[in-house]
Amino acid sequence: MKAHNSDWISALVDGELTGLRRWLVQRHLRRCTLCAAEYRHMHHVREMLAANPPATPMSDSADFFWSKVKREIQAREGQTADVPMSELSLSDWLGQHRFALASAVTTLVAIVGLVFALRIPRNASSPVVIIQPPVATVEHASTLIPNTVATTIATKDAEPAVIWVSGLPWTTDMTEMKTQYAQMDS
Amino acid sequence: MRWLGLILISLALAATVHAAQVQARLIRATQDEKLADARLKTLHAQLEKKFGYPYYEQMGEKQEALKADTTNRLDLGEGFVVFVTPKSVTKKVHELEVEWTSGKASLVKSTVKISEGGYLFIKGPGVANDWIVLALTVHE
Predict the structure, then answer these.
(1) Range of the domain at B126
(2) A103 within some domain
(3) ipTM field
(4) Residue B2 lies in a domain
């Protein structure tokens, strides 16, 4: 091998030559400075390419994405991870339980209405409740039994009103009283 | 809808069950300690102040709901009956016509105004050393 041949040099760099051809090319490189320089240049380029492989552009298709996710899941299968739990705020809780809340409010309104209905008299003309002491007053008192008088005794406010019936027949016991009043016709 | 129905029924029942009650007690005012009646514990002080007797026995008691212009007949026993006819209600004060009878005799007729918890006492006939007393009140 005496002529310069870049193809042989490239094949040697790529490791494609074997046997006698490989020996002949290597012997030529030892004797030819031009081919030896070309060999070093090609070998350097090959090393640079091996150290810096070209970046493969990522596909933006959905299939590519999900296949990547699937590979990631398979790779991490069996591993454990802490998943942070979200906490519910008051507004979240109210939003989730709005039907229960509405039922509770309705029940409360019904109970309050029931209490008011039981407490407020039907004939009351004013909704304002004024607490007054218990009072009893006698407008009129009379008796039809002869020689008997019904008198109203004046009392203070908040005291029981008193009607005093004077002149009623006196009896010795309840039996006599019942007999006597049963026969009496006023 | 089921909730609403229950609420309306509850309110309707609450409106119908509300009615004032009239209560009458036949009482014997006495000097006999053995006749002292624990049922009159809350009234004892007022009875003693008005009638002076130290002991009081409850001989009968009746309570009925008042209905407008309807006469209630309260049979207290021992031949005593009270007729109560409500005439009007103004600011929780009930105007009542009251007639207390014994046998055929009308002991007293009266028109009174009683608020809730107020009392009317009527001193009636005497028996032996005691007096017969009527106590009338209204509860809401």
Answers:
(1) 19-139
(2) no
(3) 0.86
(4) no
Residue B62 lies inside a defined structural domain of this protein? yes
Residue B12 inside a domain? The answer is no
Q: How far off is chain B from A149, nearest CA to CA, in Å?
A: 9
Q: Which residue has the tokens 């089921």?
A: B2
Q: How many CB atoms lie under 10 A from the CB of residue B51?
A: 16
Single pTM value for the model: 0.56
Q: Measure the CA–CA gap between A170 and A166, rounded to whole angstroms.
A: 10
Inform me whether the pLDDT recorded for A135 exceeds 60: yes
Which among B10, B46, B123 has CB closest to A165? B123
pLDDT score recorded for residue B28: 95
**Out of B14, B93, B104, closest to residue A114 by CB:** B14
Structurally, chain A folds into a number of domains equal to 2
Identify the domain containing residue A13 by its residue range: 6-51
A123: Cβ contacts below 8 Å, ≥ 6 apart = B89, B90
**Residue B30 within any structural domain of the chain:** yes
User: What is the number of structural domains in chain B?
Assistant: 1
Q: Which helix (H) or strand (E) holds B127?
A: strand B119-127
Per CB-CB distance under 8 Å, the chain B contacts of A144 are: 106, 109
Residues of chain B neighbouring A186 (CB-CB closer than 8 A): 104-106
Q: If you search the block for the tokens 């002529």, which residue do you land on?
A: A3
Beta carbon pairs, A and B, within 8 Å = 171
CB contact under 8 A, B140 and A121: yes
Q: Largest Cα–Cα distance in chain A?
A: 172
Q: Is the pLDDT of residue A131 over 70?
A: no
In a domain, A57, yes or no: no
Q: Is residue A23 part of a domain?
A: yes
Which chain A residues are Cβ-neighbours of B46 within 8 angstroms?
A: 159-160
What does chain B come to in residues?
A: 140
Residue A154 lies in a domain: yes
Phi, psi of A60 (to 5 degrees): -100, 20
In Å, how far is B105's CA from the nearest CA of chain A?
Answer: 5
Structure confidence by residue, pLDDT tens digits, B28-80: 999 999 999 999 999 999 999 999 999 999 999 999 999 888 999 999 999 99
